[in-house]
Amino acid sequence: MSSSRYPWPGVIEYYSDFLPVSDATPRVTLLEGNTPLIPSVSIGPSLPGKLELWFKYEGVNPTGSFKDRGMTMAISKAAEAGAKATMCASTGNTSAAAAAYSTRAGMLSIVLIPAGYVALGKLAQALSYGARTIQVDGNFDDCLRLVREITDKYPVVLVNSLNPYRMDGQKTAAFEVCDALGEAPAYHALPVGNAGNITAYWWGYKDYQERGITERTPRMLGFQAAGAAPLVSGEPVSKPETVATAIRIGNPARWQDAMKAVKESDGILRAVTDEEILAVYQELAAKEGIFCEPASAASVAGVMKVAAEGFFGEESATVVCTLTGHGLKDPDRAVSLAQEPEEAPAETKAIVEMLGF
Ligand SMILES: *Cc1c(COP(=O)(O)O)cnc(C)c1O
Question: Is residue 184 lining ligand 1, measured as CB closer than 6 Å?
Answer without folding.
Answer: no
